[in-house]
């Protein structure tokens, strides 16, 4: 008996037929049939009743299903623990973050680690907020840099970093009606945003949920009809071309502001902001490498805030002492 046979067995049970399991696994049907037959011979009993309609479990099959699920769970846990062990031994820390956070932190973080912490190996992955949360939960990353909208009770230990301000972003384009209307503005009331076509992500994304929350709290409905790919850089290109406006933190577009291709207008009444946090998976032990990386992330966040790249208020302080982490105000949920 091997893990492949267990997987084929459980997928066949779930799908109700060998043909459906073959499609799900993208494997030839005879290969699955052969593996299931081998499994039944090893168990010395029939696990399935087969008919032209599909398959159903025998009494023995129902009993075996419980054991198969437990065995697969144990194998997956063993894989994750071994991956964690290998990562710890190599001093590797895997950090997942959103593109907007990566835009302000990635290069500075890489430089800081390379110059001052050569014993650490940093691996960065970027993706949408829901993907970063899934990576942390499945132990594909050690640290997730994410937003308060993605907090999930039960497995996260949280270390607040910054409460960032949100801005209306307009392309500096003389041919754009948006720019002509807004180029002299430094602030804009939230209700005024309802007058403009916005490029916004859907509610699956943390930013989409933040915008929904402010709409709900203020009673102001915004226009979300412009086609948006969900990709930050693509959206900013649309903004630069005058095809719409975006709501973003300075972290996502400060470099374009410095190049004078976009202008940011702070959103007020109410002031629009959100917390950014570092999160670890509380189901896994904290290594010295992870502790050090959390402190480095806090240090780089502070530097980027001080130079104005990441505008907002620092909300957490990590203090490192002999590779042990003391986090005033940290939250474990």
Automatic annotation (TrEMBL):
Pfam families with a match to the protein in the record: HTH_1 (PF00126), LysR_substrate (PF03466)
Keyword annotations from UniProtKB, A to Z: DNA-binding, Transcription, Transcription regulation
Give a yes or no for keyword Secreted in this entry: no
**Which segments does the entry list as coiled coil?**
none
Provide the HTH lysR-type domain boundaries. 1-58
Q: Does the keyword NADP apply?
A: no
Which family, according to the similarity comment? Belongs to the LysR transcriptional regulatory family.
**What is the protein name given in its UniProt record?**
LysR family transcriptional regulator
**Lineage start:** Bacteria, Pseudomonadati, Pseudomonadota, Gammaproteobacteria, Alteromonadales
């Amino acid at each position: 008996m091997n893990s492949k046979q267990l997987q084929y067995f459980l997928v066949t049970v779930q799908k109700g037929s060998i043909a459906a399991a073959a499609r799900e696994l993208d494997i030839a049907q005879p290969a699955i049939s052969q593996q299931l037959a081998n499994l039944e011979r090893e168990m010395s009993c029939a696990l399935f009743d087969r008919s032209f309609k599909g398959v159903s479990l025998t009494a023995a099959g129902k009993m075996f299903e419980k054991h198969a699920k437990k065995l697969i769970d144990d194998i997956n846990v063993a894989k994750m623990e071994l991956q964690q062990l290998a990562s710890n031994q190599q001093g590797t820390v895997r950090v997942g973050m959103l593109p907007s956070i990566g835009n302000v932190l990635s290069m500075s973080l890489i430089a800081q680690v390379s110059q001052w912490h050569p014993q650490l190996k940093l691996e960065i992955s970027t993706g949408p907020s829901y993907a970063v949360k899934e990576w942390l939960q499945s132990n594909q990353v050690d640290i997730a840099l994410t937003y308060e909208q993605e907090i999930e009770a039960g497995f996260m230990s949280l270390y607040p970093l910054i409460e960032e301000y949100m801005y209306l972003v307009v392309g500096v384009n003389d041919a754009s009606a948006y720019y002509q209307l807004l180029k002299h503005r430094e602030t804009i009331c939230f209700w005024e945003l309802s007058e403009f076509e916005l490029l916004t992500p859907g509610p699956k994304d943390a930013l989409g949920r933040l915008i929904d929350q402010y709409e709900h709290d203020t009673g102001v409905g915004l226009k979300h009809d412009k086609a948006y790919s969900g990709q930050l850089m693509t959206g900013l290109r649309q903004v630069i071309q005058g095809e719409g406006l975006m709501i973003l933190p300075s972290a996502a577009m400060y470099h374009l502001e410095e190049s004078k291709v976009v202008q940011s207008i702070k959103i007020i009444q109410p002031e629009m902001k959100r917390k950014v946090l570092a999160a670890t998976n509380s189901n896994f032990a904290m290594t010295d490498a992870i502790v050090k990386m959390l402190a480095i992330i806090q240090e780089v966040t502070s530097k980027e805030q001080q130079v104005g790249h990441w505008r907002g208020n620092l909300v957490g302080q990590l203090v490192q002492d002999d590779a042990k982490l003391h986090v005033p105000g940290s939250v474990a949920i």
